[in-house]
Amino acid sequence: MLIVANWKAYVEDLPKAKGLVAATRRAASRSKATVVIAPPPPLLGALAIGNRSRLAFAAQDISRTTGGAQTGESTARACMAAGAAYAIIGHSERRAAGDTNGIVAEKLGHALAQGLIPILCVGEKERDPAGRYLAFVREELRAALEDIAQKDRTKVIVAYEPIWAIGKHAKDAIGPHDLAEMVLYIKKVLAELLPGNSSARAQVLYGGSVEPEDARSLTAASGIDGVLVGHASADSRQFASIIKELS
Ligand code: PGA
Asked: Which domain holds residue 93?
């Protein structure tokens, strides 16, 4: 089980960040899950450099550039140097700020080139009765992966994050049945995009209003390999109980 904490911009000072890391470390030490924290970029290095615990760190995003005269950019290489092992790519909040499928594909390539494990976010804005959201998710996966070398495609973790379920509460998250269906669909699309039968090992996460109340029901029979937690990960008690629920 992979549990990713996406702090977004909920955490803005170092004492709070350090307190959250310590609480998360304690919860993670009682669990078999792999726990990854994605702090805001200015805090990443201070928390992750020299980290020897079994927590891992992620960049919330990386730049589409690879260095040079690019004021304000956090390149994949700089994120790696700051202690990240993973990078969230294509989060809907970055897509809303301008990341097209093409930019997401570029970022994915940069992450892989630097040895960061990409967590590729996909997910529809809404569910239409005709089921067009399935084609939308398929297209996000295809566009992100088609220019990536076959052997690198197997390193990508997919996070299914339906936009309509993000930033709400447990009762608004997707139902376990619909989630199971989507996981099967994503695995089917990955079977077409990944070499041989490597898609059988592909990891698929779910994100969107994961809270202590729904963490277990979402993961119990849906076939997901983990969760990407937003607001509840910036609350030490809530996040510790999610880790406990999933242990
Ligand atoms: P949420 O965010 O848990 O606050 O819904 C999830 C995400 O956007 O990654």
From this structure: 2-245
Residue 205 has pLDDT above 90, yes or no: yes
- Give 139 Cα–ligand 1 centroid separation in angstroms: 22
| pLDDT (tens digit per residue) in 114-169 | 999 999 999 999 999 999 999 999 999 999 999 999 999 999 999 999 999 999 99
Look at the block and give the residue holding tokens 């690019």. Answer: 70
Catalytic residue among 124, 161, 211, 245: 161
For 193-204, how does the pLDDT look when each residue is reduced to its tens digit (9 = 90+)?
Answer: 999 999 999 999
Q: How far is the CA of 3 from the centre of ligand 1 (A)?
A: 12
Any atom of ligand 1 within 6 Å of the Cβ of 60: no
- Residues 63, 98 contacting (CB under 8 angstroms): no
**How far is it, in rounded angstroms, from Cα 110 to Cα 96?**
21
CATH of residue 112: 3.20.20.70
Q: Report the number of distinct structural domains present in the chain.
A: 1
Give the tens place of pLDDT for each residue, 68-127. Answer: 999 999 999 999 999 999 999 999 999 999 999 999 999 999 999 999 999 999 999 999
- Ligand 1: which atom is nearest the Cα of residue 159? 9
Catalytic residue, from 91, 93, 211, 213: name it: 91
Helix (H, G, I), strand (E, B) or coil at 152: helix
Q: State how far the Cα of 227 lies from the Cα of 247, in Å rounded to an integer.
A: 13
